[in-house]
Design brief:
The complex is a heterodimer.
Chain A: E1 7-19, E2 25-37, E3 41-45, H1 52-60, E4 67-72, E5 75-76, E6 84-87, H2 99-108, H3 114-127, H4 143-155, E7 161-165, H5 173-190, E8 193-198, H6 201-207, E9 210-214, E10 222-227, H7 236-239, H8 243-269
Parallel strand pairs in A: 3-8, 3-9, 6-7, 7-8
Antiparallel strand pairs in A: 1-2, 1-4, 4-5, 9-10
Chain B: H1 3-26, H2 37-40, H3 43-56, H4 58-90, H5 92-107, H6 114-121, H7 125-149, H8 153-161, H9 166-184, H10 186-203, H11 209-218, H12 222-250
Helix pairs in contact in B: 3-12, 4-7, 4-10, 4-11, 6-7, 7-9, 7-10, 8-9, 10-11, 10-12, 11-12
The chains are: A alpha/beta, B mainly alpha.
């Protein structure tokens, strides 16, 4: 990593454990070390149930690590991560608010006058391609439109860090690529630090600067870290045809494959 | 089926029932009247009674009283139920302490409270309002309680990550969720407010639809009982239609149920 680039998120020996009962403790993630530089796009890939989302929740301050530390821009994280915006895997929009109100809420609760909040929310809806959908309620939107509103809702607050938990997981293959391109376009404007969790290796390589691989849980660890040197700005449709893309994919997959198999074997046992 | 056909068939049912009733109550079949007028009256007499009530205008006073009692019971019961439900849902310890008592009171058939309310509050409208309140309160209470408890974890986490304070979470997340549960039980709670009013009137009062039915029954005026029942059911249907209109406005953000009333 570049020496001058400050570290946005730093997990140092972070261990996350859950109580399962009186005496049983499940260690989801063991001694994870991960640093995301400011402006860096990092993707975490791992087999299902390996604790990728757990790691993200630790970075968000939604979960406290059992051991180890979390530093956000070189300050220890206490409570929720106020520098971060979080895009959830499942529907997180407020169902009783219109798309416009959903986007504006982040500004409103920060004390910005409603008229100004709404005006800026309108601009953001336009940025994510939903200029005329402001008056729709979430149930009237498609899965992809949900994610667009979610992106606008998070980005309008201009967080320095963007945490994304398999945000495009529930979408169909084409919509995922379109959303990936939209994300890259928006990211290119001001290059926030991004921590992007996914189980889709192709998506990870196409989007990120760095791909981090996690082992199968329990006690998941970070077992690999690859730089993605594909040129930017990228178009996901094009990037996937790139020769280097395939070489990198093959290389990472050779490591990931074993973990995926372990993950399946364990979930079959359970 | 087209709307007109449906309406025609619905009307047909009413016509058949009324004609058969009139027939069996007035014309001997196989040498005998199957519906003796003393017990069953007949549609013509019932209709005449209704017309008489409306023509003389006495019915308006009774309708107004019952309506007023229902509204008061609904408003007071809903407000109290919403506040207590919201509060207890946010105070799990107190909720756990009160849990058996809440269940006990809710299990009690509320009709047995009517004599006590009459004793405490007299024969006026307030004893009826109190009865309605005990019915409405628990429906709203349980729904609001559930609404706060069932807030989606993701939506809640999203609110937190967007920077909401506890107070803002209340306003933007817990409260709308609780209200949506409360509104979805609007038909039931409004219905119970009317039940409370009418049953209260029936058990002891000086005015209202329940009183009208009870009076007619007291003098074996079966036509009066049926007429009162008919007016009451139309009254309830009209209120229910009003509730549907209000519901549509309040729950615009909800997906339309695939199958249901409408």
């Amino acid at each position: 990593m570049n020496e001058k680039m400050p570290t946005a998120v730093a997990l140092e020996d972070a261990t996350v454990a859950f109580r399962l009962g009186e005496a049983r403790v499940y260690t989801a993630v063991e001694k994870a070390n991960l640093a995301v530089g400011a402006g860096e796009f990092v993707a975490i890939v791992g087999p299902t149930g390996c604790g990728k989302s757990t790691l993200l929740n630790v970075a968000a301050g939604l979960l406290k690590p059992a051991a180890g530390s979390v530093r956000i821009f070189d300050r220890p994280l206490l409570g929720l991560n106020r520098e971060a915006g979080y895009l959830f895997q499942t529907d997180a929009l407020f169902p009783w608010k219109t798309a416009l109100d959903n986007v504006a809420i982040g500004l409103e609760i920060a004390g910005i006058p409603r008229s100004e909040a709404l005006a800026r929310a309108n601009d953001w809806l336009a940025s994510v391609g939903l200029a005329h959908f402001g008056s729709r309620y979430p149930h009237m939107l498609s899965g992809g439109q949900h994610k667009r509103v979610g992106l606008a809702q998070v980005l309008i607050r201009n967080p320095k860090i963007l945490l994304m938990d398999e945000p495009f997981g529930p979408l169909d293959a084409q919509t995922r690529q379109v959303m990936g391109n939209l994300l890259l376009d928006l990211w290119n404007r001001d290059r926030k630090a991004v921590l992007f969790v996914t189980h889709d290796l192709e998506e990870a390589i196409a989007l990120a600067d760095r791909v981090v691989i996690m082992s199968a849980g329990p006690g998941a660890r970070i077992i690999g870290d690859w730089q993605v040197t594909l040129p930017r700005p990228r178009d996901i449709f094009e990037t996937r045809l790139n020769k280097d893309f395939h070489a990198l994919h093959r290389e990472i997959w050779s490591v990931l494959k074993g973990e995926v198999m372990k993950g399946y074997a364990q979930s079959a046992d359970a | 089926m087209s709307r007109i056909t449906l309406l025609a068939l619905q009307l047909l049912v009413a016509v058949v029932v009324v004609v058969l009733w009139q027939l069996f109550a007035t014309v001997p079949v196989f040498g005998r009247i199957w519906l003796p007028p003393f017990f069953f009256s007949n549609p013509v007499d019932v209709f005449a009674q209704i017309v008489k009530w409306f023509a003389s205008g006495v019915i308006w006073k009774h309708l107004a009283i019952t309506l007023w009692e229902s509204i008061l019971a609904f408003v007071i019961g809903s407000a109290a139920g919403a506040m207590v439900g919201f509060w207890l849902a946010r105070q799990p310890l107190i909720a756990a302490v009160f849990d058996p008592y809440v269940k006990m009171v809710n299990a009690l058939p509320r009709v047995v409270l009517a004599p006590i309310f009459t004793l405490w509050l007299g024969l006026g409208i307030w004893s009826k309002v109190a009865l309605g309140v005990t019915l409405v309160f628990f429906i709203v209470f349980f729904n609001v309680y559930q609404g706060v408890k069932e807030v989606s974890h993701t939506v809640l986490a999203n609110g937190r990550m967007l920077g909401m304070s506890e107070q803002q979470l209340m306003r933007h997340v817990y409260w709308p969720s609780a209200l949506s549960w409360m509104f979805s039980s609007l038909h039931t709670s409004v219905g119970f407010a009317v039940v409370g009013a009418v049953v209260g009137e029936y058990l002891g009062s000086a005015a209202g639809l329940g009183y009208l039915i009870q009076q007619a029954e007291g003098v074996f005026d079966v036509a009066g009982v049926f007429a009162g029942m008919f007016v009451l059911s139309v009254f309830v249907v009209l209120i229910d239609m009003g509730v549907t209109l209000v519901e549509r406005r309040l729950l615009v953000w909800r997906p339309a149920p695939a199958d249901g009333r409408g």
